[in-house]
Amino acid sequence: MVSRDSHSYYRLAVSAVMNLSRTSQVSPLMPARFEFPLTVVLDDIDRLGHVNNIVYIRWMQDAAVAHSREQGWPMSRYQEAGFSWVVRSHFIEYRVPAFEGDQVIVHTWVADMQKVSSRRRFEIRRLDGTLLAKAETHWAFVRNSDQRLTRIPEEVASAFVIVPD
Q1: Residue 8, pLDDT score
Q2: Rounded CA gap, 45 and 19, in Å?
Q3: Burial of 139 (C-beta count, 10 Å sphere; 0-12/13-18/19+)
Q4: Where are the domains of the chain?
Q5: pLDDT of the residue at 11
Q6: Phi/psi at 9 (nearest 5 deg)?
Q7: Level-2 CATH architecture, domain 4-157
Q8: C-alpha dihedral sign at 125, 129, 132, 136
Q9: Burial class for 138, CB neighbours closer than 10 Å (0-12, 13-18, 19+)
Q10: CA separation for the pair 153, 39 (Å, rounded)
Q11: Closest by alpha carbon to 135, among 150, 120, 147?
Q12: Is the pLDDT of residue 31 over 90?
């Protein structure tokens, strides 16, 4: 179960780790999985009365961006470095619908980091643990100047713990 206090502790721990060193060494305090809590709002609901399928993609994107930020790579840092992540594909398996007012946690982790791409996995659950969806996004790393694939720098790759299948 996620509480405000556990998120505060998590943020403090990650901040301390990231401020101590920006080297390529992964700290044992760095969490392998990231939790992104949210509450389903009316704008998330479709005409069938449950969360619209496209909302899950937004949640995945928001969780990935928040995870990257927590690991020391906010979008502004990528921009300054001249790089971006772009989506190659999404896969989502919907299990149980979510409804307005549901408290949800998007669990995400990096499943692999290749030369120019990475796979990120997701489990989207209600606060009670009910699995709503499982998903995966395949990301490509590109130079902003020409949108061409480019090698993922070690300082980016080492900021994330890899949780293999």
Answers
A1: 36
A2: 40
A3: buried
A4: 4-157
A5: 38
A6: -60, -45
A7: Roll (3.10)
A8: positive
A9: middle
A10: 35
A11: 120
A12: no
